[in-house]
Structures are given as C-alpha cells and as structure tokens.
Amino acid sequence: MKKVYLIGFMGSGKSAVGKRLSNVLHVPFYDMDTEIANRTGMTIPQIFETYGEERFRDMETDFLHRFQDEYCIIATGGGVAMRAQNREIMRQTGLVFCLNSTFRDIWRRVSTDKNRPIVQRSTRDELEILYHKRKPLYLESAHFKVETAGRSLNEITQYIA
Ligand code: S3P
C-alpha cells in the first residue's frame, strides 16, 4: 500500500474519513492542519493572522516535501490541491482520493466554524464561488473521486478501503 491522500473542499469529511480508514486498514493517520499546528505551536487562524495565507501555503508544501512516512493516510487541508507542485507530489507518492460533497452540505458543516479563516472572512456567496473554482483542481489531482452525498461515513470508508 502507498500513502493515501484525501483531498477536497473544507467540510467534505477528509479528517473523519481518514480517521475511520486508519482504524479499518491499521495504517497511521495524519491530519495536515494538525501537524502544521503542532509544528508551529499555533492554531491555523493564528498562523493566517501572524504570517499570512501565502506562508501557510508554503508550510503545506513543506509538509508534503518532508513527510517521510511511506504507508499512511493523510487528510490534506482544503487548499493543498491548489498548487501544481503539491498536486504532483501527491500523485507521485500516493493514491489521491477526492471527497466530493455538495456546497449545501459543506455550508451546513462549516458556516459556524471559527477555526477556518477562509470561512471567517467569506460570505456564503464568496465561499460558493471558491468551491466552484477549486472543484476542477481537486478532480484533476485525484486518482479516484468519491461522492459523499447520501452516504454514511462507513459507506465512504468501505468504498475507499
Ligand atoms: C483551508 C482549509 C482548511 C485549512 C485552512 C485553509 C482552505 O483545512 O487548511 O483553514 O484553504 O480550504 P480543512 O479543509 O481541513 O478545513
């Protein structure tokens, strides 16, 4: 087994699916945001506020470059697939699964979340525009597309496993 990368928009269930998959496959799980937060000793909103978004994006790319664990499941941040360099690393070092949720479901899950700076600074319409802008890039990065609408966490996990 290679690395498994879970990609997709915020709130598409990458972390929840990653954890469950890790239990089913007995493979370590890493959440990229958590790893970056642990390494810097700051929360994601603090990183955005202190260093700006671009520096956070560099941290994501650094993580992909230096991550050595060969067999693991990684839930990426929703912006990771936006850089061509990141897309290339993921496709070359693992299997990439895109979790595809409807914007309606996403909004329901993230709209009140204080830990996502992109959500905090956006209106619903702005976030929906970003969702549509990013969608082709997720699909371009992925080896497999997983529709989440109407499926339970278990069903999604079983499909990937
Ligand atoms: C971001 C998604 C977040 C986190 C950061 C930026 C994005 O991760 O990396 O807030 O640009 O889509 P999740 O997709 O896990 O929420």
TrEMBL record:
Compartment annotation: Cytoplasm
Residues binding Mg(2+), per UniProt: S15
Enzyme Commission no: 2.7.1.71
Binding site for ATP: G11, S12, G13, K14, S15, A16, R116, R151
Principal subcellular localisation of the protein: cytoplasm
InterPro entries, A to Z: P-loop_NTPase, Shikimate/glucono_kinase, Shikimate_kinase/TSH1
Annotated positions binding substrate: D33, R57, G78, R134
UniProt keyword terms in alphabetical order: Amino-acid biosynthesis, Aromatic amino acid biosynthesis, ATP-binding, Cytoplasm, Kinase, Magnesium, Metal-binding, Nucleotide-binding, Transferase
GO MF entries: kinase activity
Required co-factors: Mg(2+)
Enzymatic reactions: shikimate + ATP = 3-phosphoshikimate + ADP + H(+)
Family of this protein: Belongs to the shikimate kinase family.
Function noted in UniProt: Catalyzes the specific phosphorylation of the 3-hydroxyl group of shikimic acid using ATP as a cosubstrate.
Record's subunit section: Monomer.
Protein name: Shikimate kinase
Gene name as annotated: aroK
